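Hey team,

Filing this mostly as a record. A colleague (T.K.) asked me to run one chain through the structure pipeline before their review meeting, and I want the input and output archived in the tracker in case anyone asks later how it was produced. No errors, nothing strange. Just documentation.

Input sequence:
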Amino acid sequence: KFPVMGVRWRSSLTLGEKEQVNGSSAAAAGGDNKREDGNKQVVASYWGIKGEEVKKEDGTPWRWNCFRPWETYQADLTIDLKKHHVPTTFLDKLAYWTVKSLRFPTDVFFQRRYGCRAMMLETVAAVPGMVGGMLLHCKSLRRFEHSGGWIKTLLDEAENERMHLMTFMEVSQPRWYERALVFTVQGVFFNAYFLAYLASPKLAHRVVGYSEEEAIHSYTEFLKELDKGTIENVPAPAIAIDYWRLPADSTLRDVVMVVRADEAHHRDVN
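Output structure:
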């Protein structure tokens, strides 16, 4: 279960699985992860500090370390898939054609490998909310004024996109060069978006809005491939069932439906 050659990231492991990993690591280190009384001490926190014990509503232990029960929700599937912001101003057109030009190499590279396409898409989609939230946070500090709730909105958007990635990592196995591509694309996009947001927040949000329109299109094509049987409709990952509060017998198709609904919400916000 280690992040080697595309298996699984530690951040998407359940707490029970992390205990096994931590226990194995402690044994390999000669028992460094033990208390003075000789009993093993399981530390599930990134900082090495044991966190509070979280439970579900039914009293059973919460299995996840990458999100908490109060961060879960049920997606609103009543979305308008055809909604489109017609570019009118120069900035609108610049944002629109920038996104359109970036879609072409993505189509060529991934073609119909929609699982890996989604993985790549979400590694980029989680960047704008964090960059925007960070810059608004700094602006609020400099000007001694409130943000109108936008800091939390943008950070929640970034977290939601990150959970999309944690989910699709369970159903796709990206190749080594695709992982390497993530480093390159994210590095370039982060800095480009950072500068764009400093120059014009409106342009930056328009780029996100049009990117989400393209994401909706990609997930719609993903659903078509699932319906045709080209892609196997496997059971939904446990992390997706808990995060979106899906029925226990949900499938990959159900997951793609709620992810697409999330993207439509982000499109409307931006």
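Quick notes for T.K.: Residues 85-269 form a domain with the Ferritin fold (CATH 1.20.1260.140). The two ends are 37 Å apart (CA to CA).
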